[in-house]
Amino acid sequence: MLSKELVAASTVPLVLSVLTEGESYGYELIQRVRELSGGKIEWTEGMLYPVLHWMEREGLIEAEWREAGNGRKRKYYRLQHAGRKALAKEQQQWLAVHTTLTQLWKTKPHLI
Amino acid sequence: MENETSFDLNQQIQVWRENLGQSPAFCGENLDELETHLRDSISLLEARGLSAEEAFSVAARRMGTSGSLAAEFGKVHRQAVWMDRIFWMLVGLQLWGLVHSVFQGLGSATSMAALSRWGALKNVSPEHEAGPFPYFLPIPVLAFTFVQLLVLAGSLAFIWWLIIRKGEFWGGYFGRLLAKRVHLVTGLIFLAILLVKSLQVVPRLLVLKALKVNIGTAMTMSQSYSEVLISILQTAALLIITIMLARKRMKSQSQVRVA
Q: Which of B113, B192, B223, B239 has its CA at 20 to 30 Å from residue B83's CA atom?
């Protein structure tokens, strides 16, 4: 399980990244992230939807109500240009942290 | 049998949704989105072999309590939350005015009647009234003050009971009523307040008239009339703001129903 701070920091880049695969809706986003993380990242609805609405307001993503196959109406989210730009920036930063940590842990594995 | 359970499920979801809708943190669209989410979740659980009822309770529990959901949603919808708070504060303020007026009307009428019965009002003259505090406080002044204190305490206690003890019940009832017919309800409140405001002053005027009390009666009377006028204006102003906020609240909660 991720810490609260890490969840808060990683939600936006994760949502943006999942949306690069194509449009999606809240329920599916939660499932997809759970599956990719092997169950380590378990989002709650109460956390995700407000973040999605904030991202929509910021213009990172765009939302559209559409009827799904089963006749249920769903709000689909799609990546916007500003979202792609934000994701590129996020990616740089996360990779910077990632490479630094991996290097440190490679040379001193006993630390872990 | 199957029809019965699916009907039940829809009803349960409706109740769940209405429960969430009590909070200003959600607009109609948010509720639609959460409802679809809940239904997706239920479908998946049902596909795994749970009954509709079990699936609903598991899915609803996973979504979290309405309080925790509202807290999270409220962070992004601050304006709506504050508008709602101001709305309920105004409702409370008017309720307070209403309750206090009723108590005051009763209090001043009974105290006047009682004092006049004892003949205490006859000896009162304007000089007495203006006597230097606190040396020459005439009995009527003391008596009225005492009654006003009682009135204050009584209305405070009543309001306390109404809001703290029964607030959830009446708040929910009032909210639902307001969502359905905002004009009728606010119109009725306005009439009620007018009625009560006049109740507050009219008995006093009547008693004064009946007693033919000679303590600058004309002044007291015109004061009373102006009190009524001012309170009508004040009430109208407050009500207009309340109606505006109520309509805003309604707009955000009126929902595009999910099929």
A: B192
Cα separation, B257 vs B259, whole angstroms: 6
CA within 13 Å, CB half, B153: 6
Would an 8 Å CB–CB cutoff place B46 in contact with chain A? no
A-facing residues of B in 106-165 (CB < 8 A) are: none
Report the alpha-carbon distance of residue B94 to residue B238 in Å, rounded: 8
Q: So what's the ipTM on this one?
A: 0.81
Q: What is the pLDDT of residues A3-20, one digit of tens each?
A: 888 888 899 999 999 999
Distance between CA atoms of residues A74 and A27, nearest Å? 10
pTM of the model: 0.58
CB-nearest to A44 from B30, B64, B256 is: B64
Nearest to B102 by CA among B194, B200, B22: B200
To the nearest 10°, report the CA torsion of A70, A73, A74, A79: 110
